[in-house]
TrEMBL record:
<dbReference type="GO" id="GO:0003700">
    <property type="term" value="F:DNA-binding transcription factor activity"/>
</dbReference>
<dbReference type="InterPro" id="IPR009057">
    <property type="entry name" value="Homeodomain-like_sf"/>
</dbReference>
<keyword id="KW-0804">Transcription</keyword>
<dbReference type="InterPro" id="IPR018062">
    <property type="entry name" value="HTH_AraC-typ_CS"/>
</dbReference>
<dbReference type="GO" id="GO:0043565">
    <property type="term" value="F:sequence-specific DNA binding"/>
</dbReference>
<feature type="domain" description="HTH araC/xylS-type">
    <location>
        <begin position="195"/>
        <end position="295"/>
    </location>
</feature>
<dbReference type="Pfam" id="PF02311">
    <property type="entry name" value="AraC_binding"/>
</dbReference>
<dbReference type="InterPro" id="IPR018060">
    <property type="entry name" value="HTH_AraC"/>
</dbReference>
<dbReference type="InterPro" id="IPR014710">
    <property type="entry name" value="RmlC-like_jellyroll"/>
</dbReference>
<protein>
    <submittedName>
        <fullName>AraC-type DNA-binding protein</fullName>
    </submittedName>
</protein>
<keyword id="KW-0238">DNA-binding</keyword>
<keyword id="KW-0805">Transcription regulation</keyword>
<dbReference type="Pfam" id="PF12833">
    <property type="entry name" value="HTH_18"/>
</dbReference>
<dbReference type="InterPro" id="IPR011051">
    <property type="entry name" value="RmlC_Cupin_sf"/>
</dbReference>
<dbReference type="InterPro" id="IPR003313">
    <property type="entry name" value="AraC-bd"/>
</dbReference>
Length: 296
């Protein structure tokens, strides 16, 4: 994604202060009962979770694809955060610790993908593995969404009739093929290592319009606004305004997933007018907001 302009139009109507959102926490649901293997290379889980629920940080020795058939997810890993609306999915390589937060009520569909020794990806040749060794936001085609919905979600220990096992094998093969052909989308936001800056960035990700100025966001971090601005340049090679703009773009994608019109998305993100929001999107990504958000 092209780097945003250094002089973006800031939101004009964001509220000065609002109480922070409070999360409730749950554990990862029995992953040991859904282990993928050569015979069953794709395993599926389903879990309905309320908004502001976070699945605590965890990792798996296999790859994972997180999909929400309804609602919006936010997945955080060590170096970044990813917004996942229903039109997208997130590929997570083996061994990557991640936390999943429900931005709104969501039907969380999880695919566990078997990874043969020394290989990474949805059954891609060795020469094509490099992109799959990191988290990737992928387009979800109508076919892929339908396939995910149809996958059996019974855990190990439950009887699997031969007809259902055969169906799972066919669905799994199609899912892997759809993943291999899915386009990658830039909906990630880089995160810093500095604890003070990380705290601020996590707060912005949770509620990007809660404050309007860097001085307001810096309160409670133990660092002055000048120090915070310096940390942004050092750790993320970006100004606070540029970084927050990426957050707003990701949030816009989440709002677009609810089929909200551009004028309402602009208002939700605190922009004084749809034209101000459209100008920001055009500067940041080089295309009209309707095309970028899939609303055109």
């Amino acid at each position: 994604m092209p780097r945003p302009s250094t002089t973006p139009t800031p939101p004009a109507t964001a509220p000065a202060t609002r109480p922070a959102r409070v999360l409730s926490y749950v554990e990862s649901l029995t992953p040991h009962l859904f282990v993928p293997n050569r015979a069953r290379p794709v395993r599926a889980k389903f879990r309905a979770l309320r908004a502001d629920t976070q699945v605590r940080p965890h990792q798996h020795p296999w790859a994972q694809v997180a999909v929400s058939t309804t609602g919006v997810l936010r997945l955080a890993v060590a170096g970044g955060s990813f917004i996942v609306p229903p039109s997208r999915a997130l590929w997570i390589p083996p061994g990557v610790e991640h936390a999943v937060t429900m931005v709104e009520d969501a039907d969380l569909r999880t695919l566990y993908i078997h990874q043969p020794a020394g290989l990474c990806g949805p059954g891609v040749p060795a020469a094509q593995q490099a992109p799959w060794q990191q988290c990737r936001v992928l387009e979800v085609s109508p076919l892929l969404r339908a396939l995910v919905r149809e996958m059996p979600t019974a855990p190990d220990g439950a009887p699997l009739a031969s007809e259902l096992a055969r169906r799972e094998r066919h669905l799994s093969a199609l899912i892997l093929d759809e993943l291999r052909h899915a386009a990658s989308v830039r909906l990630g936001v880089d995160l810093p290592r500095d604890k003070r800056l990380r705290q601020l960035c996590e707060a912005v990700l949770a509620d990007p319009t809660r404050h309007d100025t860097l001085a307001d966001w810096a309160r409670g971090t133990g660092a002055s606004p000048r120090t915070v601005a310096r940390l942004f340049r050092q750790e993320l090679a970006s100004s606070f305004t540029q970084w927050r703009q990426q957050v707003l773009l990701a949030q816009a994608a989440a709002l677009a997933a609810r089929r909200l019109p551009i004028n309402q998305i602009a208002a939700e993100l605190g922009y004084a007018s749809p034209s101000a929001f459209s100008a920001m999107v055009r500067r940041a990504v080089g295309m009209a907001p309707g095309k970028f958000l899939g609303l055109a």
